[in-house]
Design goal:
With 327 residues, the protein is an alpha/beta fold. It has helices at residues 2-13, 27-31, 47-53, 61-69, 83-94, 190-193, 217-224, 246-253, 267-272, and strands at residues 110-112, 133-135, 155-157, 179-181, 206-208, 232-234, 259-260, 263-264. It comes from Scopus umbretta (Hammerkop).
Length: 327
């Protein structure tokens, strides 16, 4: 479940372990905060004075922060860690009481669980009440129960999963969601198109449906047209993207769109396709595919037959091949 993956993520960050958290390495600094005359020895303190104030066996905040930031340190995070992970560890050094215990759930604004084999978005996610971005790419999720999603969520990325049905996701979707990423899933047919409207996603700005199995361009556009705030749309990789008038029809049908399939829509392109949306008869249910074979190795060339001498008794050998494409 995503809760289990989150707990593992926290454990890897080591927020309660040296040099983070509360321990013998900084106990006097935080005991002083409860004293009437005590003050916090933070990063703004005088370095020389702070060195004198640090008791024997303890470390200053600067020294602890250096252990996190020095890439040669055994406590340094990997180079590919997120800025939030680095920020959380720095908070665990400077203000460890803020992220102690269940308080850590209120700190998270973004959560990235990628390639961890997650197949369930459970209700434990609701503990992250302030979460605004949830990245769950490359897992094994087939369904998402919207009741288990934090209500403040603005970004939901589900790329490279096994989502085939949007019904559960649209039962009680996060009202402020601005980006929905559903690329490389198993969505298809009009049963799923009906969930891609403003009734479910009134604030959606960006939608990724790439590499699914949508085939009905007219039906899909009729649903997407209700998304008045939609500015970015990705549909490449679907069968409907093979229709010859695909891009022009979308550009004219969705006049508020800025980017289609990662390509910015220029004003001259919009002018070029003006009026195409009012000519659905041009939307023929066929696809145009051009295949070019650059080189084939390991088989004789049938066009390079050697000329046999007149009267030769050698047998004639003919080569023929059949090339098949499966869609």
């Amino acid at each position: 479940s995503i809760s289990a993956a989150f707990r593992e993520h926290l454990w890897c960050l080591g927020l309660q372990d040296f040099p983070c958290g509360l321990g013998s390495w900084n106990k006097s600094r935080f005991n002083a905060r409860t004293s009437p005359r005590g003050g916090r020895l933070g990063l703004g303190a005088d370095p020389a004075g702070q060195e004198e104030a640090v008791p024997l066996g303890e470390e200053s905040p600067e020294a602890l922060m250096e252990l996190l930031r020095d890439r040669h340190s055994p406590w340094a995070l990997p180079p590919d860690c997120s800025p939030q992970d680095q920020h959380l560890r720095e908070m665990a050094v400077l203000t460890p009481e803020i992220i102690h215990g269940s308080n850590v759930f209120q700190v998270f604004r973004s959560l990235r669980i990628v390639g961890k084999g997650v197949d369930e978005v459970d209700e434990g996610l609701l503990q992250l009440q302030q979460l605004e971005e949830l990245i769950l790419s490359a897992n094994q999720i087939s369904t998402v129960t919207s009741a288990n999603l934090p209500r403040m969520l603005k970004v939901l990325e589900l790329c490279c999963n096994a989502v085939a049905d949007l019904q559960d996701l649209c039962t009680q979707p996060p009202p402020e969601l601005q980006h929905l990423g559903l690329g490389y899933n198993r969505l298809c047919g009009p049963l799923q198109e009906k969930y891609l409207t403003a009734d479910f996603w009134p604030n959606l700005v960006s939608l990724d449906l790439s590499f699914n199995n949508f085939t009905n361009l007219l039906g899909l556009v009729s649903q997407l047209s209700s998304l008045q705030k939609l500015r970015i749309l990705v549909l490449q990789g679907n069968p409907l993207a093979l229709i010859p008038t695909y891009r022009g029809f979308l550009v004219d049908s969705l006049p508020k769109l800025y980017i289609l399939d990662d390509i910015h829509i220029e004003s001259d392109e919009r002018h070029k396709f003006h009026g195409l949306a009012r000519q659905p008869e041009l939307m023929r249910s066929e696809a145009r595919v051009v295949v070019s074979i650059g080189e084939i190795k390991g088989v004789p060339d049938p066009s390079a037959c050697q000329q046999l001498e007149v009267g030769s008794e050698a047998p004639m050998i003919t080569y023929t091949y059949c090339v098949m494409y499966e869609f």
